[in-house]
Design goal:
single chain, alpha+beta, 21% helix, globular
């Protein structure tokens, strides 16, 4: 089953692109209903690199309900649209029945220096698919509302790498991360 979302964010496309690649933003737009804890040594990176990342999903940010793989890739497009894809899957717990989780997030320029954000999720969980779809659809509406509310707070930077690579310096300036102008606590 498919969930589609299309909205305009009140930030420029470079800022939105940096935000969707940030685990801190994933946490911010998912709270308070869901939280994520990295199962990898060293915790979450500042930006999602290509590859598989195992996370513990927590209901209300507290109760562990599942372990899942977030499988990140950055498919190249020729139309000026930037895309991040998560071909993840459930490992154990509530998401174990999930056979397919294909989540595509795209950003493109919108009028007025804003961003057209599109989000598509295709899920398959056998006979449980309709149940997963209903819960995920409701959660997706929450995420979209949070993204629209938080987007104006995502400070822009003049130099944002177009592609994530090991040589790209990370420049945090997103919710939950100190910026170079703000000392960390």
């Amino acid at each position: 089953m498919r969930i589609l979302l299309k909205t305009v964010l009140d930030c420029d496309p470079d800022t939105a692109w940096r935000a969707i690649r940030s685990p801190a933003v994933l946490q911010a737009v998912s709270a308070p209903w869901m939280g994520f804890e990295s199962r990898e040594e060293g915790g979450f990176p500042e930006e999602w690199p290509t590859g598989e990342h195992v996370v513990c999903v927590k209901a209300f940010g507290i109760v562990p309900i599942a372990d899942q793989v977030i499988g990140i890739s950055f498919p190249q497009r020729r139309d000026g649209v930037r895309m991040m894809r998560d071909n993840g899957r459930g490992l154990v717990g509530a998401f174990a029945p999930m056979r397919r989780w294909q989540h595509s997030l795209t950003v493109a320029a919108a009028p007025g220096g804003r961003t057209l954000y599109r989000d598509q999720l295709i899920i398959e969980a056998g006979v449980l698919t309709p149940l997963f779809w209903a819960g995920t659809w409701a959660f997706w509406q929450w995420r979209a509302a949070r993204m629209r509310a938080l987007a104006p707070t995502w400070a822009s930077r003049p130099s944002v790498p177009d592609r994530l690579s090991p040589s790209s310096p990370s420049q945090p300036d997103l919710p939950g991360q100190p910026s170079p102008s703000q000392p960390s606590a």
